[in-house]
């Protein structure tokens, strides 16, 4: 039977032999190719590769019994040499089977391309998601952090925030509520720092600041400072306690406020009120002092007792008695002591 390329190609068609099959015989210690399958008649030169020479070049006369990986003409092949049965007088014959690695991977290249496309799309989606997170999460948080730094520096103006229904919106709402609460608390503390807790009138410190501010506008302008004292109040405190004295001082403040008009009235000490009358002359100050004495001369009454207040007024005039708030307050108090002592 002539063993040639035609016979080997016919055997390939009738069986499951691979595309690349070669028959080689050992002659004089060298392998010689007897026939090659359908690859010998392939149209392309790269498809007409021979695997047996590559095996011979690597392993010599002893063909490998296990499959090996060969690189022929820049392509990878899995090759295996199988000894064929023969008669004792026949030369050794081996069938070299070859499988192209590139051809085996060809069906998976589209899968690899699809995965590469999905990976690229995932990276693009990640970049878009990162940009969205930076815009919708990081920027509002940075704005809140900047507002927190401004609040720590003393600026309690809350930043304008867009209405959101997510966690960032809840955080910004809580932050705005906190800023509002801080603003109210600070306003309450400032009010308490400058006002008397019993009567609600400005205290001595606030009165002195307002008086100094008014005098700085025009130091030569006429003004009067009246210091109103209740001489009996220390005795009332000693005998009846601070609860009654607090109610008495609230009643006295309520009597003085309608008469003071545009004058700035404050509680100067525990038993004294001060009234600043801008642009008032000496006669106007005396007339106002008499009205204060008259309204406070009415005894303070509760259900079971009646208390006499013993009011007195000391007057200091600007700029005659001083052009600064502290000087006017001091001299008005001296005048009040003199008025109480003369009674």
Give an overview in words.
The protein is α+β, with helices and mostly antiparallel strands. It is 50% helix and 20% strand. The chain is built from nine helices and eleven strands. It has helices at 5-14, 52-59, 101-152, 167-194, 204-217, 233-240, 242-260, 282-296, 325-342; strands spanning 20-27, 30-36, 68-72, 75-83, 93-100, 223-230, 264-269, 272-278, 300-301, 306-307, 311-318. The protein has a five-stranded antiparallel sheet with strand order 2-1-5-4-3. Helix 3 packs parallel to helix 4 (167-194) and helix 6 runs antiparallel to helix 7. The chain is rod-shaped and about 160 Å long. It starts with a helix and ends with a helix. The mean pLDDT is 82.
Question: How many helical elements?
Answer: 9
Backbone structural class: alpha+beta
Catalogue the unreliable spans.
none
In round numbers, the mean pLDDT is: 82
Question: How far is the N terminus from the C terminus?
Answer: 157 Å
Across the major sheet, the strand order is 2-1-5-4-3
Largest sheet composition: 5 strands, antiparallel
Helices and strands, in order, run as HEEHEEEHHHEHHEEHEEEH
Q: How would you describe the shape?
A: rod-shaped
Q: How helix-rich are the residues, as a percent range? A: 40-55%
Please give the radius of gyration in angstroms: 55 Å
């Amino acid at each position: 039977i002539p063993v040639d390329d035609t016979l080997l190609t016919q055997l390939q068609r009738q069986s499951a032999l691979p595309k690349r099959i070669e028959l080689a015989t050992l002659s004089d210690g060298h392998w010689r190719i007897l026939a090659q399958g359908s690859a010998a008649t392939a149209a392309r030169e790269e498809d007409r590769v021979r695997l047996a020479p590559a095996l011979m070049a690597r392993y010599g006369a002893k063909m490998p019994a296990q499959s090996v990986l060969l690189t022929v003409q820049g392509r990878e092949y899995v090759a295996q040499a199988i000894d064929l049965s023969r008669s004792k007088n026949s030369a050794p014959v081996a069938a070299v089977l070859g499988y192209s690695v590139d051809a085996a991977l060809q069906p998976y290249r589209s899968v690899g391309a699809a995965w590469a496309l999905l990976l690229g799309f995932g990276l693009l989606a990640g970049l878009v998601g990162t940009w969205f997170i930076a815009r919708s999460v990081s920027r509002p948080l940075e704005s809140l952090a900047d507002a927190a730094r401004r609040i720590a520096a003393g600026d309690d103006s809350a930043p304008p925030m867009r209405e959101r229904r997510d966690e960032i919106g809840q955080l910004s709402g809580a932050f705005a509520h906190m800023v509002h609460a801080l603003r109210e608390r600070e306003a309450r503390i400032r009010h308490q720092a400058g006002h008397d807790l019993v009567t609600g009138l400005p205290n001595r410190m606030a009165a002195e600041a307002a008086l100094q501010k008014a005098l700085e506008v025009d130091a030569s302008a006429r003004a009067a400072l009246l210091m109103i004292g209740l001489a009996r109040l220390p005795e009332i405190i000693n005998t009846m306690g601070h609860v009654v004295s607090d109610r008495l001082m609230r009643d006295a403040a309520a009597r003085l406020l309608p008469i003071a008009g545009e004058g700035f009235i404050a509680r100067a000490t525990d038993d004294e009120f001060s009234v600043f009358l801008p642009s008032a002359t000496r006669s106007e100050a005396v007339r106002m002092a008499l009205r204060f004495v008259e309204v406070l001369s009415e005894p303070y009454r509760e259900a079971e007792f009646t208390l006499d207040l013993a009011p007195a007024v000391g007057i200091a005039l600007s700029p005659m008695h001083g052009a600064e708030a502290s000087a006017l307050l001091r001299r008005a108090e001296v005048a009040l002591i003199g008025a109480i002592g003369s009674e």
